[in-house]
Amino acid sequence: MTIENQIKSALVQAFNDLYNSVIDEKILQLQLTRKDMKGDYTLVVFPLLKLSKKNPVETGNDLGAAVLKLCSDVSSFEVINGFLNLTLSHAYWIRALQVIGGNETHGFKSADAHSPLVMIEYSSPNTNKPLHLGHIRNNLLGFSISRIAQVNGNRVVKTNIVNDRGVHICKSMLAWQKWGQGQTPESTGLKGDHLVGNFYVKFDQEYKKELSELMAKGLSKEEAEAQSTLMHETREMLLKWEAHDPEVYELWKTMNQWVYNGFDVTYKNMGVDFDKIYYESDTYITGRDMVFEGLEKGAFYQREDKSIWCDFTAEGLDEKLLLRTDGTSVYITQDIGTAKLRFDDYKIDKMVYVVGNEQIYHFKILALLLDKLGFDWGKDLMHFSYGMVELPEGKMKSREGTVVDADDLMEEMVNTARAMSKELGKLDGYSEEEAEKVYKTIAMGSLKYFILKVDPRKNMTFDPKESIDFNGNTGPFIQYTYARIQSVLKKAEDKGFEIPSQVNTNVGLGVKEVLLIRMLANFPQIIAEAGSIYSPAIIANYTYELVKEFNQFYHESPIAFEEDADVRGLRLQLCKVVGQTIKNAMWTLGVDVPERM
RNA sequence: GGUCUCAUAGCUCAGCUGGAUAGAGCAUCUCCCUUCUAAGGAGAGGGUCUUAGGUUCGAAUCCUAAUGGGAUCACCA
Question: pLDDT tens, A44-72?
Fold first, then answer.
């Protein structure tokens, strides 16, 4: 039984004894005491006054005295402003620290064969251009919530649906055919995804040019779009592709492979991976079959021009196109197919889609659509919708060249970390290789933490200057504290001091020490909360608070230099557990911690 | 226009199911390396929590409305 439950049941009993009133534990508001007040747990007594029929001070004192008697771990209490603050004994906290220290994965639940299976889709890139800052947020969130789901006792399958077909892919293919002059990643020295991206941009430029020429002849924008040769050729290419025209198909395979090779590098640098990858080129046919199936069943209808639609006006939404007039698939067609294949492949209990909030409508439709097709899991799919990443100047616009490229950004972060570290002379004595590894750890830690610390649902501003700052509420600050702890522990070891297996529970604790242990004891709740709402930010902010407290403690208390052996033993134990907790917390964010920095 | 979302310090963000004096970081200004890593610590200034109502012992938090941003409603993805 946790201490909170002990206190609560004591309160229930006390209430019964004192006021002859039976209460439910649920109405007891027991929370951790504010940092600036004396005490460990606080009971808000206001809601209880109607039942106690006494004023807040009397009620608080009555209950405090009773709990003091009933709970041996409670050592004192105080009533202030209608709040009953309970203080636990130092011996209790020392024992708690001991227990946490004995469990390397304190706060984590492990999954077994019967645990729920959660499939998490993230990344889902298009194979027509390299990954950018927006994808970074998606990838980091997807990877982190996978780990968070995992440490909350779920079986997790990380998945990726690669959007490798469609008009947008044909655009870069067509541009390469027309203007590529046989360029390859080898011949240009470019990363494959960047090379293909260049042709996508090229297409857009040429298309714009064509449109403005047509409009100069007096055509309206719509007319120009309809008459565009480039767009016409693109659609023809899509038809050819769907018909598996050998030439088009070969080109498609080749260019996609270039992109995959490029993505592999980016994913590796980012430190994310997948258990199962689906390709739209494999799933859209299943999707199309299901659309026809739905048509037969009468769930959908066909217009005169042969296009197939689903009517959602009864649900307060619009009509949705499922298959074009020319029979080719649209975005949502493949999503239906992908869902079907996934549920055929795995016994999924929960499906999570990590996709930006601009697609809320899309997923609402998808859920209804799957429901209409008779899949009982349709309604239960979860769209983990996160906010957009904006730059200080505003939204990223590819046309204005303000898109922050993922590869460039990561490289720049590493360069900054290297320069900073060299300037500070932090890694003197490390080999070049070891040092490079640390630079990368810091750079990625900085980037990941910067993005994950903000509430996923909210839009965020990404200021490159700020993201590269390694002081304050940043990844490197947390990593630094971890490294510092390792250094202290090493120092102690060098002096022959060991962490005792059993710390003397009579040692007096400082205010900061109690606070730290309290925070450590609270870690499981943080993990559980992060799991219930899929929020890495909760863990990030918790870790920052923990680290900040630790640094204050570090500054005011000698650890390896402490002369009293009992006190020293306790502090070393505390250091070890804080370090362990930092490492575990950062692990859920996909952030590594260095032993030295 | 319909729907959805957001609004907290100069800037970037925390403040969870209502609780004590609204917190951090950055930026500005002071201090602290003859003790375990100064990528650190201490301190100062900086707020009508967008506005107006409501709910109640108690509201940044819940409800309603207004204002201002953003998203979305494609034979784009």
Answer: 999 999 888 889 999 999 999 999 999 99
Q: Is A380 a residue whose pLDDT tops 90? A: no
Nucleotide nearest to A358 (CA to C1'): B71
Q: What's the pLDDT score for residue A502?
A: 83
CATH number of A408-589: 1.10.730.10
Nucleotide whose C1' lies closest to the alpha carbon of residue A360: B72
Q: How far is the CA of A50 from the C1' of B65 (A)?
A: 34
Q: Which pLDDT does position A556 carry in this prediction?
A: 93
CB-strand contact A305/B, under 7 Å? yes
What amino acid occupies position A441? Answer: T
DSSP A237: H
Phi, psi (5° rounding) for residue A276?
-155, 125
| Residue numbers in A 526-545, CB below 7 Å of strand B | 529, 537-538, 541, 544
**Residue–nucleotide distance: A35 CA to B22 C1' (Å):** 14
DSSP state of A289: H
Regarding the domain delimited by A3-88, which CATH topology (the fold level of the hierarchy) does it fall under?
Gyrase A; domain 2 (3.30.1360)
Q: How far is Cα A331 from Cα A329, in angstroms, rounded to an integer?
A: 7
How much is the ipTM here? 0.96
pLDDT for A226: 86
DSSP code of residue A353: E
Q: Nearest residue (Cα to C1') for B57? A: A46
Which pLDDT score, from 0 to 100, does residue A400 have?
Answer: 76
| Whether A374 CB is under 7 Å from strand B | no
Strand B and A185 CB separated by under 7 Å: no
pLDDT tens-digit map of A301-344: 999 999 999 999 888 888 999 999 988 889 999 999 999 999 99
- Calpha distance A149→A120 (Å, rounded): 9
Contact (CB, 8 A) for A450 and A416: no
Domain boundaries, chain A: 3-88, 162-270, 408-589
A57 touches strand B (CB under 7 A): no
- Residue A25 above 90 pLDDT? no
> What pLDDT does residue A543 have?
98
**Residue A455: strand, helix, or coil:** coil
How would you write A398-446 as a 3-class SS string? HHHCCCCEHHHHHHHHHHHHHHHHHHHCCCCCCCHHHHHHHHHHHHHHH
Spell out the residues 6+ positions from residue A130 whose beta carbon is closer than 8 angstroms to its own: A191, A193, A194, A197, A262, A266, A405, A406, A407
Report how far apart, in Å, the C-alpha atoms of A396 and of each of A167, A168, A503, A588 are.
22, 19, 56, 29
**A31-50 residues near strand B (Cβ < 7 Å):** 31, 33-34, 36-37, 39, 42, 44, 46-47
Question: From the Cβ of A574, is strand B under 7 Å away?
Answer: no
Q: What pLDDT, on the 0 to 100 scale, is given for residue A375?
A: 84
